[in-house]
């Protein structure tokens, strides 16, 4: 399948085709996702929790994001890959935001970057767009500021809160973002935004009335076990499969069942006799 660009994603919205989106953090997972035909891959800062075991995304660094983006790009050369700007990489100034967005493009040839926030990050968004980089907004639940939001809580559940989410969406779209992610908001609010805006509005925990869906691959495959948000559908239990396989290996070694004959390298013809002589001293 030819690689999709941002115009193809816009065309999918116009045609009413759902856009599929998953996170990936490493080379093998990226190869699986490309083979599965996913439209977009996000190298999310959720890697802090899913790969590094941090309690949240705040400790994640640019260096970590870049390393994982490079690996994913190698694994999915024909897929739209988005780098997620970690906490601290765009909060300080417009200049720092542009410099860090550029690093994603140079190191990992990403197709877009994503940053969290609405009205509060408009100058950052405009500065990155002015550098010619495709930007995805991220509103609703924004995990990097979950402390200020009172935890990982759904957003937009009252009229007042829903209006703030809608205003963020409108402001980002007016600023020029080409894609928008809405996280953990009521389906009615997300659907209203998707219907109003001309850009693809994708959801995670935002119902079916949007232009596409994102899930975290570690939830989908069942490798992240600390907690499972309500909006997740788990498609496999790789943690269970992996733990069972590893326990079998441990059992085999302890029982002397591994390695077996077929796992051994034998000496070349005639060499074993010479080695026997050698060991006699
Ligand atoms: O980092 C990530 O995977 C994300 C999702 C939670 C939306 O930003």
Q: How are the SSEs placed, and which strands pair?
A:
Blueprint: H1 6-15, E1 19-23, H2 27-36, E2 40-43, H3 47-50, H4 62-75, E3 80-84, H5 94-108, E4 112-116, H6 122-130, E5 135-140, H7 159-175, E6 179-183, H8 187-196, E7 201-204, E8 212-215, H9 217-220, H10 238-255, H11 271-280
Parallel strand pairs: 1-2, 1-8, 2-3, 3-4, 4-5, 5-6, 6-7, 7-8
Helix pairs in contact: 2-4, 4-5, 5-6, 7-8
This protein binds 3-methyl-2-oxobutanoic acid.
Round the Cα radius of gyration to an integer and report it: 23 Å
How confident overall, as mean pLDDT? Answer: 97
- Order of strands, main sheet, comes to 1-2-3-4-5-6-7-8
Runs in which pLDDT lies below 50 for 5 or more consecutive residues are none
**What count of helical segments does DSSP give?**
11
Q: Helix- and strand-based class? A: alpha/beta
Query: How far apart are the termini?
Result: 64 Å
Describe what you observe in this structure.
The protein contains eleven helices and eight strands. It has 281 residues and is α/β, with parallel strands linked by helices. The chain has an eight-stranded parallel barrel, surrounded by six helices. Helix 2 crosses helix 4, helix 4 runs parallel beside helix 5 and helix 5 packs across helix 6. The radius of gyration is 23 Å and the shape is elongated. The chain binds 3-methyl-2-oxobutanoic acid.
List keywords for this structure.
alpha/beta; 14% strand; binds 3-methyl-2-oxobutanoic acid; 281 residues; single chain
Summary, kept brief:
With about 280 residues, the protein is an alpha/beta fold. It has eleven helices and eight strands.
